[in-house]
Design a protein that fits this description.
alpha+beta, Helix Hairpins, Heat Shock Protein 90, 5-stranded antiparallel sheet, 5-stranded mixed sheet, 12 strands, rod-shaped, transferase, phosphorelay sensor kinase activity, histidine kinase
Length: 407
Amino acid sequence: MYRQLMNEQELQTDQHLAAEKARYQQMALTLDRRSFGIQVKTADPKTALVVWRNSFDLVGALSLMPDDMPMLPQTREFPILTGGPDKLHILTGGLVMTRYGPVLIATRTDQLATLIDRFVNAAITALMLTIVLTLALGYLFSKAILRRLVQYNRLSRRIERGEYSTRFPVSWRQDEFDMLASKFNRVLDTLENNLAAVRGATDNIAHDLRTPLSHLRIGLEQLPDRSCEELPEACAILTEKLDHCLATFDAMLSLTRIEEGQQTLELQELSLKLLCEDLFEMAEAMAEMNQQTLSVTTGTDVKLTGDKYLLFQALFNLVDNAIKYAGEGAHIEIVQQGREIQIRDNGPGIPNEAKDRVFERLVRLDPSRHNQGTGLGLSLVKAILARHDARVKLMDNQPGLIVSITF
């Protein structure tokens, strides 16, 4: 604004002096010397201050003509003294060459300096007001931020005390604090779900291991009362119960190692088609024992890199589950097409609300608890497939269940 104001004032001064220059040059061409002098002498000082040096003296509004004045359009500032209240005036002007000699044309520009001073004073005042307003708004803004931080700190202490149901408030503003609060709330949701899963896993461990451990205790108490012929059979039963307990803990340790990436994968190139055919050969006899039919259908073969033992274990767990829970007379299919493998059965299936829960640790649906198992099979399947960048999905077969694995 300052530069624009200066440029505008300089442009107006130059245009005014140029117009006066043209006017006096024209008068010199059309008037005689005496008439020209009268025009210079009677010129309005509010329009321009004009001085002409005739043969004898100076004629015009000024009593002097400064030396080294340039020819218009070049200009130079020079001061003059007056008898008025403002004793010093600043003029800007230049010489015009006419046929009657040089004429000095000047105009006052000290009003411009006054205008600039007023502008600077106004700018300083505006700047100070802006600073004061900024400090006030900054103080209010910092108080609002501090108030929210104090609130977050108080809620954090509640979470530290174990109140995991606490959530950070999210306002309508959706600013950075609200984004952070939403993130923390999602973390707390995950934490609460994990704690619930841990509590559920503890309950399931207590439920699943209480029965075999009770049988072990009862069996051990009854051992002294048994005859020599009954001891081998009783010891075998107790060993079987103990093996089930140990298998549960071994499965939990294996699952943890796979999920945390602690178990190194023995990577090799393998064929999904051959993997499904090997799976069929291994499980066919089990299906026949349950009076079930097992079939395999393969399509376009796909080669991939993975741990053949772990992948076979995961797929066998799925087929084994189908054989266990599909019921007598069920038909079970292993279908491979490209990068997808499906294991289908026409058994009772799994309710929709339980399809996500069955992949959690030690979760066994109530109808399945009469069958011996650890409740970790599907958790192992999901962990192994995740290590191989594969997705597993449960779908309805109407009736029955379809387990779809996509690599």
